[in-house]
Amino acid sequence: MLYGLVLIPLVGALVTWLLPDDHRRPIVLPVCGALHLALTAAVLVNTPPPSHAGWIFLDPIGKLILLVASVLFMVCAVYSVGYLGYRRERRNRVLCMGLLVCLSAMTLAALAQHLGLLWVAIETTTLTMAPLIYFNRNARSIEATWKYMLICSVGIALALLGLYFLAYSTIVAGGEATLLLPSLIGQARHLSPAWLNAAFVFLLVGFGTKMGLAPLHTWKPDAYGEAPGLVGALLAGGLVNCAFLGIMRIYQICMAAGHPRFFQDTLVMMGLVSMATAAVFVVRQADFKRMLAYSSVEHVGILAVALGLGKGALFGALLHMINNGLTKGVLFLSCGNIHRSYGSKSCDVVKGALSRLPWSGGLFLAGFIAITGSPPFAPFISEFTIVTNAFGEGHYLVGAAFLLFLAVIFIGMASTVLPMVMGVEPEALEPTDYRDRLLTVAPPLLLMGVVLLLGLWLPAPFRQLLHDAAGLLEVRP
Amino acid sequence: MSSFSDQLLVLVMLINFLVLGSSRMAISIRAVAVQGVALGLLPGIIHSVSWHILLISAGIIVAKGVLIPSLLTGAVRKAEIRREIEPFIGYIATLLLGAVLTALAFLFSQKLPLHPAHRGLLFVPAAIATLLTGFLVLTTRRKAITQVIGYLILENGIFIFGLLLTEAMPVMVEAGALLDLLVGIFVMGIIINHISREFSSIDTSRLTALKE
Do A176 and B176 touch (CB under 8 A)? Predict the structure, then answer.
């Protein structure tokens, strides 16, 4: 069954490559997405045991990543059928292939227990997303793609060096060199501290570049700004989670090693720096997709802070990972619609979205309210958990800084979003052929519904899964 | 045995300087190709020969010595450039900086808590020196292709460190890493092609439209 999860998207990619018809090609995406989602549900209920000498196993953390990736892909796949209908001037073969191969790689990353395999999967997601950012084929998107490619490749190369340091720390400790997660966690207490710290730093820098932690986030505004909304949703929801998975795996090892302060403090520091950077830059962004990129930097910072705080905040971190992925999906898909309708990404042109596009404008507004942490939406629950744990464990300064940055970002984003959705459409606007139809509205609407539902009620099996995953990340005495 | 691997590592480090000081793209590409071949020979020399090692060596030599240079030469030809323009810090300064970084690499690796079998060998200094050279080329050059060459040198430096660890990195992962590198360079080559078509130049200091 696990083979199916990885192979179905690859088969789909092959089919999209062979299909000559641009009009019918997007249908392959929801078909593969549905099969993948069905298999995911089956695997979550009946977890297969570890296979291939322990390289492949779906542990609770992997299950969460797989779940979000699969749901997000399915929603984006249905959306793409509608969206690509409006983009008939472009060939969509590379887009469809890239999306499917990326899904396959994300699945493999969720299943990998060997850190080398995890690295290969994450590198593959980086590579498959590059041509997708270039979908619009203009000077700005080539610049964005080049920066993305170069910065993320260097980052991933440094992550590889970090993995080498980790393996080396086992050799120096006199054991057998290994990169299997369970063995590393078992040996963690004996690993050479100098090499383990170096490994952690390089892996944090490497995967942090991929995730968008400041100051390694410089590729994000350009890439998210120039990519189509569909691609942005998968970048912000899927790839961020895979990179966070890499950081969580090294975190598991470091927590088992017995001297967690260095790792926790570094994570909290980088997280707060990211939130501060987002707070500074999100104000007065002229381009709403770039604003969403900075929002992504903020939430990546929140994830890092929560991971660094540990204990009760770990539940909040994992829940936030899910909430962020889903809400970013809503935001990017709805702003993709707004872009199509107005023909521009600039906040000077886009005004009165609620009257011109009641559904997409409304979803964008709802998404903004959710992502900045207002009840009754799910991100409020996760952020509240993190803040109460910060104050409860005595990290007053961290908690206060956290709240301050959240407030500044709320005001900053509001100053951009509210003029966009309220008010009247500019008269000089040319009519475009975009209308809010089922295929481009239902997917983000569904995601928004899920975000609202999770904010009101966490189903018991889901809550159990989150607790199991948080248990894996806790410090072992 | 070990003296031959030492000579190869010295060759690798000398090639670093060649790339740092050269403004001609063709020379840089060929230099990195030779570096790749030298690195490909190393697993066969330092570890006992077996099918898995021979396969890795062959794969690396083909990928780094033949495929990647041909992708880059193709991109150079399509972009119709021959030379790098004056980098952000001049060539002489770059060479001096490279020399200083190599010396620091040697000093630093003496302080590192290495496994007793690896102390005094050239692997760790060569790895660090090559890594730093790669960074230097990546950050100070303007042309996109030279930045890719810097990235390749960076990867070579990381690979040298990985040579100390062949048990932890089984064939599957090595093959995967190599494949990713190949595809990465392929994608970069295509992007460079598009950059040159869009901007009629591959001077990346012109890629400044997206700013705050």
Answer: no
Instruction: For residues A395 and B56, give the distance between their C-alpha atoms in angstroms, rounded to a whole number.
Output: 50
- Given CB atoms, is B71 within the 8 Å cutoff of chain A? no
Task: Kindly give, in sequence order, each residue whose CB lies less than 8 Å from that of residue A53, ignoring residues fewer than 6 positions away.
Answer: none
**What domain range includes position B99?**
2-206
ipTM beyond 0.85? yes
β-partners of residue A346 are: A287
- As a whole number of angstroms, the distance between CA A247 and CA A204 comes to 6
Three-state SS letters, B95-109: HHHHHHHHHHHHHHH
Q: Do A177 and B165 touch (CB under 8 A)?
A: yes
Decide: helix, strand or coil at residue B83. Answer: strand
Compute the distance between CA of residue B35 and CA of residue B40 in angstroms, rounded to an integer.
9
Residues of A whose CB is below 8 A from B182: none
Rounded to an integer, what distance in angstroms lies between the CA atom of residue A255 and that of residue A476? 7
Cβ separation B158–A161 shorter than 8 A? yes
**Could you check whether the bond before residue A376 is cis, i.e. omega within 30 degrees of 0?**
yes
Q: Which of residues 208-247 of A touch B (CB under 8 A)?
A: 221-222, 225-226
Tens of pLDDT along chain B (212 residues) come to 567 888 999 999 999 999 998 888 889 999 999 999 999 888 878 777 778 778 888 888 888 888 888 888 888 887 777 676 667 788 889 999 999 999 999 998 888 888 887 777 888 999 999 999 999 999 888 888 888 899 999 989 988 888 887 665 666 667 777 777 777 787 778 788 787 777 766 677 777 777 66
- Specify the DSSP class assigned to residue A56: B
Cα dihedral B136→B138→B143→B144 (10° resolution)? 170
Per the structure, the count of domains in chain B is 1
Q: Is A145 on the interface with B (CB under 8 A)?
A: yes
DSSP state of B94: H
Q: Interior CA angle at A190 toward A186 and A196, to 5°?
A: 95
Provide the whole-model pTM.
0.92
Does the beta carbon of B164 lie under 8 angstroms from any beta carbon of chain A? Answer: yes
Flag whether residue A201 sits within 8 Å of chain B, measured between CB atoms. no
Residue carrying the six token digits 């392959």: A28
Sort residue A406 into left (φ over 0), alpha (ψ -120 to 50) or beta.
alpha
Cis peptide before A215 (omega within 30 of 0): yes
